[in-house]
Design goal:
Distance between the termini: 58 Å
Oligomer: single chain
Structural class: alpha+beta
Helix content: 40-55%
Radius of gyration: 37 Å
Strand content: 15-25%
Largest sheet: 5 strands, mixed, barrel
Number of strands: 15
Strand order of the largest sheet: 4-8-7-13-12
Length: 590
């Protein structure tokens, strides 16, 4: 075995010295980079939760449709909570609290900084989406016709969107209305046969929908009632708009309201739903560069694409306005494009969207419809007064705890307390900067439980220093000088620190997974600070201890260094001595 070169100590041996400068340089660079990123992002303070910064509390009450009273159950309420939470998270709010209260109420707490109107639309919108064929439409009762030579209804911005199959040409779907179709009687429209696709692709009337002679009153009471409802519907009245299709099933024909391009309300008579929101696989609000407008792109599931292809194939063979289909969201027509060719797979909704409304609609459609309808019971503004008092009390408790820790370190460890305090400072700086950066990055918000987690972390971090210091002292008590004692103590201390931090991190991870709401803030902060404890001990505390062991104050065991051999009761240095055997006297022989 080759002997080590002269002047070098074997790496990893008892007296082996590490290179502390590299580790210190690495953590300093990381601190500078993170701090610079914090100032560059403009978010120099952590984002506060609703209990510290205030916000909005929305109470929703579930309401069952007539004949479906059993729909308000625990399963549907849990599903609704999950969907609402994902919708709010889609707005970039990860600290929102969504929880049930009683049997039929859901409480949504949203921190300050989120548009209240936008949040209310997201959490309260049922998002029941249906694609229904248009039988006819007309200006709403009480609405003046749009001024034009033919007195025809102007196309609606919210219904002027095209529904286009990606990659197909000639799939423009702009609704239009001729004077002849506008003058059509409602009763005749209801009597018109509803086409259904045959295997050969031809349109044939359904057996149950045989057309009746024009002008003959409908014999079906339900149809007569629907005719009367369409004739008298006043879309200017919010109550009539809300109740127009209330209680209707997807297989029922309905009346509904929608706005045109100049903001006027129009009423629609619509056939049974052919495609619903469950058939939408994904939706996203995007900006169309060619047309210079915001649209909502939808992708259908395999089953939805097949349904969509069938309905557009049927509608493309009809005359206006029966070649249109209405996109109905929560009983209101948001778009009613006409179809000139068979479409499939993908569709788009366009119209009077801006960036926010397009992205909001895409967000709602992506996460699915709520299993229940909800009405907003109350919207309250939550002040931060109570949370501020609790935060102040928590900070005072934290300051007292930190002061006691510092006092203990100074009295018991003397000069070693300087290393501990510097390490605590580095850990606090990294924790603050990372929390400030996580706010805009993932929506992390600092709440009271998270502050408690940070305070608990002070003890975890201090415990790591104490473990290392005590290992060093044990080596000094064995009679070793400080520099080899620092290196020999590190492997034993490192193993203990890693095991302790692993247990703490595991507990935080389990707590984060099995809990909800504010308790997750405590678990997240505890896990974050535990990881930072490992980083600080490995890259700062140990390298700094190695450098200070080379100074006279610590290396020579000054009385105030905390490593004075006399105060520690160190043993004399162990030295090997050659054993001398005493002479043995043998009895003389007589």
């Amino acid at each position: 075995m080759a002997a080590p070169k002269k002047g070098r100590r074997p790496a990893g041996g008892p007296g082996g010295q590490s290179r502390p400068g590299r580790a210190l340089a690495l953590i300093i660079i990381a601190m500078v980079a993170l701090t610079g990123g914090m100032f560059w992002s403009g978010h120099t303070t952590p984002r506060l939760g609703i209990d510290l910064a205030g916000g909005t509390s929305i109470t929703l009450k579930a309401k069952a449709e007539p004949g479906q009273e059993d729909a308000v159950n625990e399963t549907n309420m849990k599903t609704a909570v999950d969907i609402i939470e994902r919708r709010v998270n889609g707005l970039g709010v990860s600290e929102a609290e969504v929880q049930t209260q009683g049997r039929e109420n859901i409480i949504v707490n949203i921190p300050r900084g989120v548009n209240e109107k936008q949040a209310r639309e997201q959490v309260g919108t049922t998002a029941q989406l249906y694609f229904r064929p248009v039988v006819t439409y007309a200006p709403s009762a009480g609405e003046q016709p749009a001024p034009s030579a033919s007195s025809s209804t102007s196309p609606k911005p919210s219904a002027s969107g095209s529904t286009a199959d990606k990659g197909k040409d000639g799939a423009s779907a702009t609704p239009s209305a001729s004077s002849s179709t506008q003058g059509r009687a409602v009763s005749e429209a209801l009597k018109a046969p509803s086409p259904t696709a045959t295997p050969s692709g031809s349109a044939t009337p359904k057996a149950s929908e045989t057309p009746k002679p024009s002008g003959t009153p409908s014999a079906d009471p339900a149809t007569s009632a629907l005719e009367q409802k369409f004739a008298t519907l006043n879309c200017l009245d919010p109550k009539q708009r809300a109740s127009a299709s209330q209680g209707a099933k997807p297989a029922d024909s309905i009346v509904a309201c929608g706005k045109n391009s100049i903001g006027q309300w129009e009423k629609y008579l619509l056939g049974p739903a052919e495609v619903d929101g469950k058939d939408v696989d994904d939706a996203q609000g995007t900006f169309d560069q060619q047309r210079g407008m915001w649209i909502v792109n939808m992708e259908f599931t395999d089953a939805g694409a097949k349904k969509f292809s069938q309905i557009t194939s049927k509608l493309s063979q009809q005359q206006e306005p029966q070649n249109q289909f209405a996109i109905v969201l929560d009983g209101e027509v948001v778009s009613a494009p006409s179809v000139r060719t068979t479409l499939s797979a993908n569709a788009e909704i366009s119209g009077s969207f801006n960036q926010q409304s397009a992205q909001d609609l895409g967000n709602i459609l992506s996460y699915g419809a709520l299993p229940l309808a909800f009405e907003t019971q109350s919207v309250d503004t939550v002040t931060a007064a109570l949370g501020g008092e609790q935060l102040e009390a928590g900070l005072i408790a934290g300051a007292i705890g930190l002061g006691l820790v510092v006092l203990y370190l100074v009295i018991y460890y003397r000069g070693l307390s300087l290393i501990a305090l510097l390490s605590l400072g580095v850990s606090a700086l990294l924790t603050y900067v990372i929390m400030a950066l996580l706010g805009p990055a993932i929506g992390f918000a600092l709440n009271l439980p998270a502050v408690c987690g940070a305070i608990v972390a002070i003890g975890i971090t201090a415990d790591s220093f104490i473990v290392y210091f005590e290992r060093i002292r044990d080596e000094v008590r064995e009679g070793r000088t400080l520099r080899p004692a620092v290196e020999r103590a590190w492997p034993r201390a490192r193993r203990t620190i890693l095991v302790s931090d692993f247990v703490s991190f595991l507990a935080a991870a389990v707590l984060f997974v099995v809990t909800v709401g504010k308790v997750q803030g405590f678990a997240f902060t505890l896990g974050l600070t535990t990881l930072l404890d490992v980083v600080v001990v490995f890259l700062f505390t140990k390298p700094l201890m190695t450098l200070l062991a080379r100074t006279k104050f610590y290396g020579n065991g000054h009385a105030w260094s905390g490593l004075d051999p006399k105060r520690l009761g160190a043993k004399p240095p162990l030295r090997r001595s050659r054993r001398v055997n005493a002479p043995v006297d043998h009895p003389k022989e007589a």
